[in-house]
Structures are given as structure tokens and as C-alpha cells.
# Entry
Amino acid sequence: MKENEISEAARKRAEEVLSTSVENKVAEGHRAGFVNIVGNPNVGKSTLMNDLVGERISIITQKAQTTRHRIMGIVNTPEYQIVFSDTPGVLKPKYKLQESMLEFSEGALTDADVLVYVTDVVEDPEKNKDFLDRVAKEQVPVLLVINKIDLLKGDNALNEIVDKWHARLPKAEIFPTSALEHFNVDNLKKRIVELLPVSAPFFGKDALTDKPARFFVTEIIREKLLLMYDKEIPYSTEVIVEKFDEKEGAIHIMAVIYVERDSQKGIIIGKGGEKIKRVGIAARADIEKFFGKKVYLEMFVKVEKDWRNRDNKLREFGYKE
# Structure
């Protein structure tokens, strides 16, 4: 079996688990609600969010702490509006930025109409036990997504994982899924629609997200930093768009990359500006694709010492009220 090929046994078990879900008929009237996606780092929350929304709302890398903010992606049809929220991975904070990230994740437990808890086929159910205990006590419907089942080998592997998670979250409905291969995602989305309360939409029917255009520029640039630099460098960076001048056929963007130390500034720029030029080329290509326009991108690097532990800078960068 190929490494990323979902076995027939896994498919069959996924269908059996799905068949145990309660069949609800959608009541007459428009449905709308907040569906919050939570879980530990690197389980595929952002990949799942993008697949459910049908657009690339959240950036994706293989590194932990890729998602720093709570990001909404909105799905509209004449019959319903789903307001998805992607959240940072749950972790034990080591500095104030991570405390703010954890607050985004914990806040998602308080205002959900449907909670989607994402895990994968290798994660220990007792990781971040305190947070999971809170999920187990939720009164709203909880959908447990066991992601990355394309990585499983052996006929009984999925059975064992499902049983383990059912014991941990007995009230949750379980959806074995591969967001990367779009396996079982449509069934998950269908169940979400069934669980939405009857309500008027919360946002305009043409809305895709609650974030402004500048936010997605910063996220695209930050994604390239995560992909192109190692160790602590990308985690010590923040991106702020200081100029976003949009005209009919083009956008002129000026962005600042903040780092914590002078040595990090030199690493980001690289010899003769070679490294930051590579970041700019890759970011510009994705920004042009996102907006469908020609982009002129200027980037600068500034030092803001210890910004991850300074309340005033975290407030300025949008991590605190």
C-alpha cells in the first residue's frame, strides 16, 4: 500500500463510525452558527479549515505554532451560513505571545455552536489533558476529527484509535478523516450543517472572512519566513503591513518584518539581501494569486527587542485587546 493511500479497512471503519451519527432532518428556515476548530499543534486544523471553507484562509506549514490568531472562514449558501474559526494549537505558554495564543484557543470553547476537536492518528489523547477535560464537559455538540488516516497501516489500526478516543470523549461524534486527501470532509460538513441552529446570518452573504486584506498579506509573508528559516528565527518574527495601496490593476504593499535581535535581522536579510529577496519573490507570487492582481512588494526588517513578552507590542500587533 502506498504511504498516503487510505486502506479499504480504514475506509470501511470510517463509514461504520459515520453511520452511528444521529440522522437529523434540517428544519425549515435559514441556519447559521459558529463552528470552532480546536486541537493541539500539527494535527491538521488549518488544512481541514481550508478544505471546509473551500479557500486558502489559513497558512500551512509543518512547523508548530504556524497559526497565531483566531481566523474566521465563512461558508454561505442560500440555506445556511457556517462561520468556521481556525485557532492556534493548544500549548503550555513559555512567553506572553503564547499566552495570547492560548487565550484564542480557550475563547473558542466559550462561543461555539459546534465544536470540532481535531487530533490525528499518532497523538496521545492525554496530551494537554486539562484542555481536553474542558472539551469533554462541553454542552454543545462536539465532533471529534481523527485526521491523517491516510498514514495508517494495518487493518485494525483505526479501530484501536477510534476506541481509544471514544473512551476519552464518549459524547463526541467521531469522524475519521484525511483533510489532505479530502476524505470524509464532505460528510463532516454535512453533519455540521445539520447541527447548526436556525438563525439569520451573522455576516453578509458575500463575506469570506472577518479579517482585512492586510492580515492575509502578513500571514503569507510569515508563512514564507516559517518555510525558509530554521530554529527560533521564524518564531521571533512578526509582520506588519504599513502601506496597502490598491488600484484597479495593481497593489503597492510596504511590509515590515520585526525581529527581536540584531543578529536575527542579519539572518533574515542574508548576504547582500539574498534571503529576504527570496522571501519577497515567494510571498509576492502568493499575494498576487490571492488578490488576482499585480503586486509591488517592499519589505524592511526592524528590531523590536523582546516583543513577544511586551504587552504594548502584543497589543499593537493584534494579540491583545
The CA atoms of residues 236 and 259 lie 6 Å apart. Residues 21-27 have pLDDT under 50 and may be disordered.
